[in-house]
């Protein structure tokens, strides 16, 4: 019984440590799931093993996005990491409406359709990140809504 209590306390300590460690990183704002798509049959999820996804990181500094242009495959995710000294807000072009990426529109922020739009829908602080999964092929320009002259381009094949 004594050993069981020791194991339980140790397990709680490990879980608390992992939770606290992940909590220091802050929230990852994500409008879409970054896991491989799944299909359902009769309510049971079935992974699609033919779908592979990669992630690309674009960093943002006080001088703008880097790299300013990336090429990815349809279904890939871009992580926008704020390494600047200010709050930033990544969104689809064109400022201020954010309508260049299909279905995107700043008026959809704070609504249910927000999950599918290329718009962080708010600022995120230095050290935080936001990610978006690109499901539409094309060339998509974006900007920092809080400093619109900082721009970039995502080419989705």
Q: What order do the helices and strands follow?
A: HEEEEEEEEEEE
Uncertain runs are: 14-51
What is the C-alpha radius of gyration, as a whole number of Å? 19 Å
Walk across the major sheet and give the strand order. Answer: 1-9-7-4-5
Largest beta-sheet details = 5 strands, mixed
Distance, first to last CA: 60 Å
Overall mean pLDDT stands at 79
CATH class of the domain at 51-156: Mainly Beta
* Morphology call: globular
Give a structural overview:
The chain has 157 residues and is of the alpha/beta class. The chain has a domain at 51-156: Immunoglobulin-like, CATH 2.60.40. 15% of the residues lie in helices and 35% in strands. It contains one helix and eleven strands. It has one helix spanning 2-24, and strands at 28-29, 38-41, 44-47, 55-61, 64-66, 69-72, 77-82, 90-92, 129-133, 138-144, 147-156. Strands 1-9-7-4-5 form a five-stranded mixed beta sheet, with no helix packed on it. A hairpin with a 2-residue loop joins strand 2 (38-41) and strand 3. It is globular and about 65 Å long. The N and C termini lie far apart (60 Å).
